[in-house]
Amino acid sequence: xxxxxxxxxxxxxxxxxxxxxxxxxxxxxxxxxxxxxxxxxxxxxxxxxxxxxxxxxxxxxxxxxxxxxxxxxxxxxxxxxxxxxxxxxxxxxxxxxxxxxxxxxxxxxxxxxxxxxxxxxxxxxxxxxxxxxxxxxxxxxxxxxxxxxxxxxxxxxxxxxxxxxxxxxxxxxxxxxxxxxxxxxxxxxxxxxxxxxxxxxxxxxxxxxxxxxxxxxxxxxxxxxxxxxxxxxxxxxxxxxxxxxxxxxxxxxxxxxxxxxxxxxxxxxxxxxxxxxxxxxxxxxxxxxxxxxxxxxxxxxxxxxxxxxxxxxxxxxxxxxxxxxxxxxxxxxxxxxxxxxxxxxxxxxxxxxxxxxxxxxxxxxxxxxxxxxxxxxxxxxxxxxxxxxxxxxxxxxxxxxxxxxxxxxxxxxxxxxxxxxxxxxxxxxxxxxxxxxxxxxxxxxxxxxxxxxxxxxxxxxxxxxxxxxxxxxxxxxxxxxxxxxxxxxxxxxxxxxxxxxxxxxxxxxxxxxxxxxxxxxxxxxxxxxxxxxxxxxxxxxxxxxxxxxxxxxxxxxxx
Length: 559
Hints:
By secondary structure, the chain is of the alpha+beta class. Helices cover 15% and strands 28% of the residues. It is globular and about 80 Å long.
């Protein structure tokens, strides 16, 4: 782009709008959940040549779920840590004509990989005697693991209602494998970009992941369901992009979007049966793609599309666009209805593309926001606020956050994208809410303005620490459930409350809970099949129940 304030008569701004719809998914451990789509937006020349990435949701663009350790048939759940997801956005991934290293399970000790011989390993066995770099399981990777900055343990998440919003985040810190590049294999998906340091058990390849990821810069938080994306996805062009005919592509996919033609059953059982009860099948209807041909010029034209152009391979094995047919759902936020039909002065559309000349008077750079304020801090959320500065208006205020080090121009792309703030006149406060944070953790938060011609301004930062954990619901009381025969047993409920309200609010208690979850799934499988062991387990739990009743009774004992 030309420097701020310069006039470029060839400059155009292309804006892309759509409204995501959450797909309501039933029968999850926490009840009814609304799932948001993974989305990619890119532009091609009319003859099909790839031109430019414009936007990709952060799970694929920053956290690398398309290319991470674990078979693609492993199950899924909230911030599930393992299992590459080539079915996420395969049309986008394949049409880019780019490849990256292929990430597999392992760490510093890893130097062998052969999918035909999955027990081949150069790493020590885990404490349970299993290969620690086996791609077929979510379990027993301790020798190749390190602290995980984003993904959850497969055995636990927490849910709580904060300000009328259901907030889901990791129940506790997780120690997991980051993987390594298997020699001779490639992926069309970028690896994760957020790993900034190498842990003692990590392979040296983890420091290459962020350098190899070339889409983190255009990645952003998933747009909220139920309203048109705002600000729109924008493409700013100049003399390097000639006027002419182009095609805007928008791809969308949702995990667990099943129908009669695409039922569950594609995920394989974990090779360690004691862990197979965790997670859910996710491979449902494939991603769908929308195409909007448009003309890049000074005319200010608007182009729209209401019908999807086709769908991808269900498993993401190629970039083929299959023509629309009756196998893809058309309503309820499912299938082709992942974007809502919007009606306005331009007619009815699911994707709208607007083209207009750049206005040189709007290319001045907005002032960097000052007086950043972090408010409404809980154990899992915080709200960033600041007054809009005087001077030229911004087209958006981008926000990112991370743990471990301040955010700078050099590491901005590798920080986690948060939703952009709203816009307002100078002097008015704008804000954005950051969800899914870890308790008792120091976060660095940064914001930067973007001018009306797409150029970014200076970064302003602030620090904040989340609170101690409040009461929340954590899935899984494995041994107690096996001993008493049901998750609804009053003894199980008492132990669950004791864990959530007391143990998880204290560091020593958290260590005890973490230790319990490292062994309890395998123990519970054995206990559940033996009446004798169930009775022994109930006897062993009686002293714990006595303590729980006394402690909860002294503090009211109610949720």
